[in-house]
Amino acid sequence: MTATGTFLPKPGAAPLTRMIRAQAALETRMLLRNGEQLLLTVVIPSLLLVLFSTVDIVDTGADGSTVDFLAPGVLALAVLSTAFTGQAIATGFERRYGVLKRLAVSPLPRWGLMAAKTCAVLVTEVMQIVLLTAIALALGWSPHGDPLSVALLLILGTAAFSGLGLLMAGTLKAEATLAAANLVFLLLLVAGGVIVSLDKFPGAARSVLELLPISALSGGLRDVLRDGAGTPWRDLGILAVWAVLGLGAAARFFRWE
């Protein structure tokens, strides 16, 4: 205290970037400590990759190595499980138990919370990708293509699924979010080109499924990593549209309680 009524340090909110970094670090620690989340985000994609690469269970429609077809799809599945399913469920129950209500009275704005959660998802995904890549390489995977295109696909896919997950968690009850997020995960696992080629679906259905974010992500990754294609602008465009719509709707309709 330097003078009457004057205190040091001066009271007030921390800089916005510091608040987002602190919240992102907290979100990451909470995510990594949650055993159920780790099962969904790490164990299940790893098991699917090993199982379907080594056992002839489904016809992937792939010409050549099965793991070359599956690895990009499983990377897309990892993004889906972390950015959408896991985040929706965790945030939904945080909202139910009043955690978000308390954050609502802090200086951290709504979009800042979403940014922090998305950053935590990105950190988790880096660890997932490293693990899944190591497993796939051990199984004989031979990736090709431009790493920048892969990074753009993963970042836009994360933004798209993160927005959709937060929208679901911020508008539905926790129990409804739990059921809906798991149902969507299972449906997209089958119909999103992850382990079954979209060529196996009828033409009309395939045209609709190709517009889904999981199809754009898995298809774009497969075009680059398996076929060595250039920048998949169509898939990037689809993911960008989903990211803008999902994050915009979440920012507009997300309810703290």
What are the salient characteristics of this protein?
mainly alpha; 257 residues
Topology (elements, then pairings):
Elements: H1 16-33, H2 35-54, H3 66-96, H4 99-104, H5 110-138, H6 147-171, H7 174-191, H8 203-209, H9 213-225, H10 233-253
In short:
With 257 residues, the protein is an all-alpha fold. It is built from ten helices and no strands. Helix 3 runs antiparallel to helix 7 and helix 5 (110-138) packs across helix 6.
CA-based gyration radius:
20 Å
What integer is the average pLDDT?
A: 84
Give the terminus-to-terminus CA distance: 39 Å
Number of strands: 0
String of helices and strands: HHHHHHHHHH
> Strand percentage, roughly?
under 5%
Report the oligomer.
single chain
Q: What structural class do helix, strand and pairing data support?
A: mainly alpha
Low-confidence segments: none
Question: What characterizes the major β-sheet?
Answer: none
Q: Helical stretch count? A: 10
Q: Estimate the helix proportion, in percent.
A: over 70%
What is the 3D form? elongated
Question: How would you describe the overall organization of this protein?
Answer:
This protein has helices at residues 16-33, 35-54, 66-96, 99-104, 110-138, 147-171, 174-191, 203-209, 213-225, 233-253. Helix 2 (35-54) runs antiparallel to helix 3 (66-96) and helix 2 (35-54) packs parallel to helix 5. By secondary structure, the chain is mostly helical. The protein contains 10 helices and no strands. 42% of the residues are buried. The two termini are 39 Å apart. It is 73% helix and 0% strand.
